[in-house]
């Protein structure tokens, strides 16, 4: 087999692999470190008491910044390539975990205080319902930060640029 054939096969597998994730989750769009810093400065200042859950954590920049502010951080990432990149990036960072899983089936830890999401408009209602279900299950208030998409059903507590902060209180069923 020629070198060009091997490269073509690897490229085809790579495209197929990423194509699968394009239909099951949001596309990977890197967040800018400065924007995340400003988010946590202006919208929701983090402390050691916080546990951030990043739904679709991508390359782990939100997790890294959360940990730098003293918070515990857990990234939920469906794409194993991005999860591996994130784990390598965060190898020396304390209080950070990256889980390869569909976040709709992930149960938030009891220590969760804030959920970060950069998702798609098409999935927003389902993601909002996931956070509400977890607030109900944990019987605690969770803060929910959405980047780029405003909830059609909840009023934001605060906004900063394209970020919306929601307070999700448990509902008695």
Structural class: alpha/beta
Strand numbers in spatial order across the main sheet: 3-2-1-4-5-7-6
The structural domain count equals 1
Total beta strands: 7
Quote the average pLDDT.
Answer: 88
Rg (C-alpha, Å): 17 Å
> Biggest β-sheet, characterized?
7 strands, mixed
Describe the structure.
By secondary structure, the protein is an alpha/beta fold. It has helices at 3-24, 33-42, 61-68, 80-89, 124-138, and strands at 51-55, 72-77, 96-100, 114-117, 142-147, 158-160, 163-168. The longest helix has 22 residues, at 3-24. The radius of gyration is 17 Å and the shape is globular. Mean pLDDT is 88; it is low at 20-24.
Describe the structure concisely.
The protein is α/β, with parallel strands linked by helices and 173 residues long.
Which properties best describe this structure?
173 residues; alpha/beta; Rossmann fold; seven-stranded mixed sheet; 20% strand
